[in-house]
Specification:
Layout (H helix, E strand, L loop, with lengths): L14 E5 L6 H15 L2 E8 L9 H30 L4 E6 L2 H11 L3 E8 L8 H9 L7 E5 L4 H7 L1
Helix pairs in contact: 1-2, 1-5
């Protein structure tokens, strides 16, 4: 990735990228990102990634139906997350739906939007570990193109208010 960040240049504003997935802690990342955006006069980009399966030609019609259902579910998840952001900070986040490998899609969204200045994720506080996205990011942390903020999943709204 060689795209220069332009978040603080004239005509631009800083944005944070939040991944809206099926984990319980996505709300913590949205809360933090929304509070941050209000404080810095920035924005929030919400990304939902749809996993795609290998498609066999004879099952293409079924695959198309599955893709449409996944897109509907993605829009519903982004509706919930956008409503939460609006309720927290009276902002309307940008929404992006992508298909494919999460790492590839996250990097592509960052590369295409020069105003994204950080990625905000929330960690699962349970014994099963922080979650697949954070585990994946830990492996790429040294070469990731922007800072990654990891919000502990068990922080309360008031605790996040004190940090953002």
């Amino acid at each position: 990735m060689t795209t220069q960040r332009r978040s603080y240049e004239t005509g631009h504003k800083p944005k944070c990228l939040v991944i809206v997935d099926d984990t319980a802690e996505w709300d913590r990342a949205v809360y933090y990102a929304s509070r941050w955006a209000v404080r810095v006069g920035g924005g929030v980009v919400m990304l939902r990634i749809i996993a795609i399966e290998d498609q066999n030609q004879q099952w293409l019609g079924v695959a198309d139906l599955m893709r449409a259902e996944a897109e509907d579910a993605a829009n519903e998840a982004l509706d919930r997350a956008s409503g939460r952001a609006n309720g927290i900070a009276a902002i309307t986040p940008e929404r992006v739906i992508r298909e494919g490998d999460p790492t590839t899609q996250i990097l592509d969204v960052i590369d295409k939007d020069v105003d994204i200045s950080m990625l905000v994720l929330a960690a699962n506080p349970g014994p099963e570990g922080p979650g697949p996205l954070i585990s994946m990011m830990a492996q790429a942390a040294g070469s990731f193109p922007i800072p990654v903020v990891i919000v502990p999943g068990d922080l309360s709204d008031s605790e996040i208010d004190g940090l953002s």
